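Homework help thread (please don't just give me the answer)

Our assignment gives two proteins as sequence + structure token strings and asks us to describe the second one. The first is just a warm-up. Here they are:
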Amino acid sequence: MQALRFTEFGGPEVLHVAELPDPQPTADEAVIRVEAASINPSDVKNVAGQMDWTVLPRIPGRDFAGVVVSGPPEWEGAEVWGTGGDVGFTRDGSHAELMTVPVDALARKPQRLSFDEASAVGVNFVTAWYGAVETAQLTEGETVAVFGISGGVGGAVAQIGRALGARVIGVGRHKPEPDTPAAESIDEYVALGPDTPAEIRRLTGGSGVEVVYDAVGGVTTTAALAALARRGRLVALSAVGTRTVSVDIRELYRNETRILGVDSAKLSVTDSAHRLRKMLPYFESGEFKPLPITARYPLGEGGKAYGAVAANIAGRVVINPGKA
């Protein structure tokens, strides 16, 4: 098989297409023919050496959609999708013609989505679900402020919040583009700036929000904390610009604030499949929608595809390993 591979850390230029033996699964594994695999910013960071658990040499790629070609009889020929914090880091990933996953990690792809669309779901929605539903326990009638609303995770959180019956306030430097899932899911938009907490409090009658899902972090943490209602929950999963922030401890305990860390890299491909199965009905109904796909590349142009993501291209970038 052909696969995108790196043997040293660096920029997209360290990636090369290698001819490798087809994977030989164990009795507990299945082989998937990868039809589509998106590229996440964390994949770019992985190649750059910013993920300290990566084992070289490695085939990168977390998200995927494809067809089972070898495994339990009931799974052969099934269209599946997935993602994982181990995929592309400690086990070979999806930027290849073939990949192996544990049988327990097989999850049926929504029929409503194409392979390309399904491959663009994984990290964004698993991270959003893990943080909003499982960690923050966002419920119907609450209000969530989503910092980084135009990003992949932010847009997913907005859709999940809407589905749960929560009020969704989108926060960002730019308002989501019209007709995007994020734009369709928010009730109000607040521009990110010095007045962000005050504006959020104005929209909530002075009380603040029950949950802030901060998909930016670092430079936004102070504003996120200031926007919380009493006993509000802050979900932190990133640190942009700075890894250190100053917190008024007295204000923290008097407000009974909860700060909750979320790291989707701790979720294996099997853990992630469990969550994708829970979200399947939402995608089948059309209530959840993946981010728009901006560009598609064959495997031979994988370095160029990684370069586009490194340059912060808007939308999702997908690799199609079987296409020239």
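The one we have to describe:
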Amino acid sequence: MRGVELAATINSDTASRAESLVAAMGVRPTLATVLVGDDPASVTYVRMKRRRCEQLGLGTRHVGLPAETCTSELVDTISGLSHDAAVHGILLQHPMGAHIDERAAFDAVAPRKDVDGVTSASFAAMALGQPGFASCTPGGIIRLLDHYGVELAGRHAVVVGRSPILGKPMAALLLGRDATVTVCHSRTRDLDAHLAGADLVVAAVGRPRLVHGGALKPGAVVVDAGYNPGNVGDVDFDSAARRASFITPVPGGVGPMTIAVLLAQTVDAAQQQLLVQSAISR
């Protein structure tokens, strides 16, 4: 299951919708990126996302903060962007440093601008099946599974990983699609025994080649949401591909979907905010 082609389709639609907003309302959907410090990988990720915004006709605004920025200063910065009508979506790049309360920082993002799906409000919406923005990687995975016609209702899904931005929201979205979900993590005993019964495996733990083909049920669908140095995922691709009916490669599988969903949700956010503003002004 390659995400490159589907992401290109989503990006084309995003660009078209953004241009329509500019033509109709004179407003360009704008994503603000916030980066604390100068971690090379984070700098690269933010630059890539801003470049893609520009390619699709979205506006960007970047706020770079020094590594020693404290939680209250970061929260104030994000709150300012949340109240800025010219900003429609906010992306807070992580990690931010051990001295920062990440949850407080994420939750400073107004839910209507949480296009990365990282706030407590967004997680609650995903868990309860209410309107809101999905976490981008889990949301992208759901779109990819739908695109390839993978049935989720009644299937046994095993999510390996329980992070608040990937594993937990992934489990919530799968439950919302009527899958039976098992969440495994670092304290799980005998991971392979859980994998053996899975119709769908989502590996999202950040450990290279943790999931191997010998542990998989023949015909399982395997989604590798991990990315480790050397373009290595959380799944041993060669052995898993011999057992799986569908499998995502690394790179070229889940990664392109994450950015595509982020930018699509930025345009969604702009449309929703403009509707509210229009209703208020009447």
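TA reply:
I won't write it for you, but here's a hint about the kind of observation we're looking for: The radius of gyration is 19 Å.
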